[in-house]
Amino acid sequence: MSAPASSLDISTPQGVARAHLHLPAGAGPGSDGRVTVPGALVLGHGAGGGIDAPDLRAVTAAATALGLAVALVEQPYRVAGKRVGPRGPALDEAWAAVVADLRARALDAPLITGGRSAGARTACRTALATGAVGVLCLAFPTRPPGRPDAPSRLPELEAAGVPVLVVQGTTDPYGTPPASPTRTVAEVPGDHALKKDTAAVAAAVTAWLPTVLPVP
Q: Which of 12, 48, 84, 166 could bridge across to 94 with cysteines, CB 3.0–4.6 Å?
């Protein structure tokens, strides 16, 4: 993964978030400070992990190779050094503020939002509110393992309201959601970490992106 072109601290109602911008070759900010590209991905981390997860790195490299920008976002609790995040409404509130700020200050482009695991859930819940044109879900946690009585998170996917790609490991203990007319599901070798075959993760994302964005 390339080094970020810049990092932005973003004030949210939940504290300061941080977005790390990765730009395609030759891209740079215009007179208004924003980067104009055919599209951009805004991706969040999992509940207990960070933006250096192998699948996030692989997707960032694949997207920038297609001429797209990528913003990897650290939620406020991670910026503050905490390992455990707040509940969904607080994550959603911070995420919406981050996306709005990136539109205003950094990215002049249609946005795909997403992330891995908990970050994917947040992106699904806020897709319509943030004006996303699509959602990328890396290892969507459909149901906690070993808890068949726990509520399914599938309604969050169903409510995204925009085209969705789910990249899921074939042995993911959280299960695999079904495909639908607006949801593509790509199964790749590995478990919930999606680090066994990051090339397969990148290939699935590379194949899907042109169906949502005007990739050159």
A: 12
